[in-house]
Amino acid sequence: MGTGGYEHVDRDRAGQAEAFDAIGDRYDEAFPHKEGQLAAGGWLTASLPAGSRVLDLGCGTGLPTARDLSAAGLQVTCVDLSAHMLELAGRNVPQARFLRADVADLAADGPLPHGGFAAVAAFFTLLMLPRPEIPLALRTVRDLLEPGGLLALGMVEADVDDAPIPFLGHTIRVSGYLRDELRHVVVDAGFEVIKEESYTYAPASTDVPPEEQLFLYCRRA
């Protein structure tokens, strides 16, 4: 199987999926308000004709993104590394398709057709990767899109690489960029940034401090 450059990085996911398996039932309670995610998902639904194929990469519980995309008449494929998150998404969006996979598994010769999607939603998914993998993941996403396909990308603005943080009683590792660098990384991966939005977000009932969320509305260049 082709790996699209992933053979040159150490793909260590130890603890990441297990943490989300454990916190899945509390996730939506801890993160109840998702204005930026709703707006970016709304851009996709407004931009695509009914029946378009859309990938929700790192779908979590399926709320709100996969649910809203499906309700708009789009054909949604949900991908997540956490088996429990996919189980919850299956209950919340039963009409979607589901695949348990790592983003690296979606590189060349993977289980999903390259060029087969009109859009990809990736809300805080790439946040869970070490920085060396983020450009590779973005190029994989670009390959999955049809020419001119859309990407709605959500990240947290932070100058960190694979940093451990407490998260709902567990530890996860996260990476991020400051906004100018994030934009450069996305453009270098083959996207045109159409629009950028930012939101200050304070999670409810969690030990995570307030964060600045960045949403990039992109098109495959």
Automatic annotation (TrEMBL):
Keywords: Methyltransferase, S-adenosyl-L-methionine, Transferase. CDD domains: AdoMet_MTases (cd02440). The keyword Methyltransferase applies. Residues 54-149 form the Methyltransferase domain. SUPFAM superfamilies: S-adenosyl-L-methionine-dependent methyltransferases. Pfam families: Methyltransf_25. GO terms for biological process: methylation. One of its GO terms (molecular function) is methyltransferase activity. InterPro entries: Methyltransf_25, SAM-dependent_MTases_sf. This is Methyltransferase domain-containing protein. It comes from Actinacidiphila polyblastidii. The lineage of its organism: Bacteria, Bacillati, Actinomycetota, Actinomycetes, Kitasatosporales.
